[in-house]
Design brief:
mainly alpha; 3 helices
């Protein structure tokens, strides 16, 4: 499968859609939170979620190059 085909599949993948939604929600919550422990916790969640999302995309592309 070509990279373009993989990218199109990723656009409709339910798990990746959920990850994008979660990233958007965490980003909005982080922007609205006041400084402190809560904001730091949201930021850590945002970083972990982004890493999972990027890993999934990397695996998707890697699979298309094999």
């Amino acid at each position: 499968m070509s990279i373009l085909a993989r990218a199109e599949a990723a656009a409709s993948d339910p798990w990746l859609i959920a990850m994008r939604r979660e990233l958007a929600e965490l980003t909005a919550a982080h922007e609205q939170a006041e400084d402190g422990v809560y904001k730091d916790a949201i930021y850590r969640g945002l970083i972990l979620t982004r890493c999972k999302y990027e890993d999934a995309l990397r695996e998707l592309v890697k699979g298309s190059l094999v």
